[in-house]
Design brief:
The protein is mainly alpha-helical and 546 residues long.
């Protein structure tokens, strides 16, 4: 690595406090910009006349791009050309944001999201390591450089304790900034049009480019050879296609009736083929893009299990939005405001993780507490779901769930990294992003949406069977609606049809609330079983002499 100037990455005239503020503010566009935004998915769906599954699928493409970047992590953060990398990446994201704003092609949206996810990780990691060096004078790459691993158990244990404090702090910073960006895009989509979110992102990236151009000098590349072999982008393509096929099956399975649809069958076959091809290429290559040996580490395998369980049960966050939307008729902006309470949970969970991590508390107790809190959030919803709920009370399950989520989310990586040789770090990041941002949420979304639909239909059939003229309340409501429609000038047939639709709507609401209540109960049981599992699981650190 080339020696950096004293005030790297800024000109000498830039005061250090100002430089730190610039690097911190740079994370706002980095964490906010993306292919699609969940908060304006409803507006995009109606504006483009497409299925909501399309938006879900495209949003996962951003995650796939982020995971595809991970094996390049170490080599890119060592380049130390902040100005060049930021200007190039922000310029590309500026153009891709414009394409997303004007296109109605799902293929283009997905492709742009994939590239933007890759570039987002480039910017995030480069900016993070530059901030650490600039603000604290620490060369963080020394703690991830292969060959510089601690040689003693005491050295590894000291490093693990440091990670128990530093990683929750970093996750807390990123997640709160990410939620602020989510709230901002929700406000833009609500007040204006969904396209305006992209135009705002274009403005932020342009501002970032101007600030970088003014405050940072040009730094030449320190060595003759670029550290990334571009032939490895063949492996990137194989990995991306593999993950895309898996997500396609999980997202569109319910809509297309699973394997009764030929595209689901084709996607499944392609997923199997590309999984096999990926394993073969990386196992036989002399300079692999991804180190398959990473799965030999027990802590890595447990980390994957923890992330999968966490992201599956974290999908229970849909209970609040479904209940608030059906039972309280709130709009997307109110739902987004309600979601902002998760920042309080992130803060509480992050502080708990840092306090107990600094005191050497065994991680299994933090994992157990995390699953317990997610279960308590589901239990709260079980007792809270009713035909008339209070909007103000919905912040409590959001805070409780996000607290438990933050504990597991920030400390799982600490456990997986215990005594992990530095050469596996980039491959672990790829595994982590794939499990945490692609496979886990994909399985959770498929599971919860399918079960919700199934139980809705069950309760609709059950309630409709018991709703007839014999039931006094149903008959009175039906007759009242008929009379009201007749007073408005409707014919007898039209009035009866409107009354029947009204009765059906009430049954649908009751069925949805009953389905949510039942699913909340099963989520509670699942979280309790997961809590018992993480508490009794035998945690063993890698034997250094082996």
């Amino acid at each position: 690595m080339a020696c950096c100037p004293k005030n790297y990455p800024f000109y000498n005239w830039v005061p250090k406090p100002l430089g730190i503020i610039i690097l911190l503010l740079m994370f706002i566009p980095i964490l906010t910009i993306g292919g699609v935004y969940s908060v304006n998915s409803g507006e995009m769906t109606s504006g483009l006349g497409i299925q909501s599954e399309h938006i879900q699928f495209v949003s996962f493409m951003t995650s796939i791009g982020m995971a595809a970047f991970a094996p390049f992590f170490y080599r890119l953060v060592c380049i130390r050309r902040e100005k060049m990398m930021c200007i190039v990446s922000f310029s590309i994201m500026y153009m891709l944001s414009y394409v997303c704003a004007v296109t109605d092609s799902i293929f283009l949206l997905g492709l742009c999201s994939l590239v933007m996810g890759f570039l987002r990780m480039v910017l995030m990691m480069v900016n993070l390591f530059t901030l650490i060096k600039y603000a604290f004078g620490m060369e963080a790459t020394r703690n991830i450089t292969p060959g510089m691993d601690p040689q003693t158990e005491e050295g590894w244990d000291k490093l693990d304790r440091e990670k128990s404090v530093s990683q929750p702090a970093i996750y807390l910073f990123f997640m709160i900034l990410g939620q602020i960006g989510t709230s901002l895009t929700a406000w833009l989509a609500y007040e204006y049009q969904w396209q305006d979110v992209y135009y705002y992102m274009m403005g932020m990236t342009l501002t970032a480019i101007v600030v970088i151009f003014i405050t940072m000098p040009y730094h030449s590349y320190g060595t003759r050879r670029f550290p990334i072999n571009f032939r490895k982008f063949g492996s990137v393509s194989v990995f991306s296609i593999m993950c895309t096929c898996i997500i396609y099956v999980l997202i569109y399975g319910k809509t297309l009736d699973w394997f009764n649809d030929i595209t689901i069958v084709r996607a499944t076959v392609l997923a199997v083929i590309f999984i096999g091809l990926f394993i073969y290429i990386e196992s036989s290559s002399s300079s692999p893009y991804f180190l398959m040996d990473v799965f030999r580490l027990k802590t890595i395998r447990m980390g994957v299990v923890l992330f999968l369980l966490l992201m599956i049960f974290n999908t229970s966050s849909m209970f609040v939005s479904v209940f608030a939307g059906i039972g309280m008729k709130i709009d997307n902006w109110q739902n987004a405001v309600l979601g902002n309470w998760c920042m309080a949970g992130y803060f509480i969970g992050g502080v708990i993780a840092m306090i107990f991590g600094s005191r050497g508390c065994h991680l299994k107790y933090m994992f157990g507490l995390g699953f317990f809190l997610i279960g308590m959030s589901a239990l709260f919803m079980y007792f809270e779901v009713q035909t008339e709920g209070l909007y103000e009370r919905m912040k409590y399950p959001v805070i409780i769930r996000s607290t438990g989520m933050m504990l597991i989310y920030s400390l799982t990586a600490v456990h997986a990294n215990q005594r992990m040789p530095y050469k596996y770090l980039s491959s672990w990041l790829c595994v982590m992003f794939t499990a945490r941002m692609i496979i886990g949420p994909g399985i959770g979304t498929a599971l919860y949406t399918n079960v919700l639909q199934n139980r809705q239909q069950y309760y609709v059939t059950r309630f409709a069977h018991d709703t007839d003229r014999v039931e006094t309340q149903a008959a009175a409501s039906y007759d009242m609606t008929v009379r009201g429609m007749r007073y408005q000038g409707k014919s007898e047939t039209e009035a009866e049809n409107m009354a029947a639709m009204s009765a059906k709507g009430k049954i649908q609401v009751q069925a949805t609330l009953s389905a949510v209540k039942e699913m909340a109960g099963w989520t509670f049981y699942g979280c309790m079983l997961s809590m018992i599992f993480v508490l009794v699981y035998p945690y063993r650190k890698r034997n250094l002499s082996a």
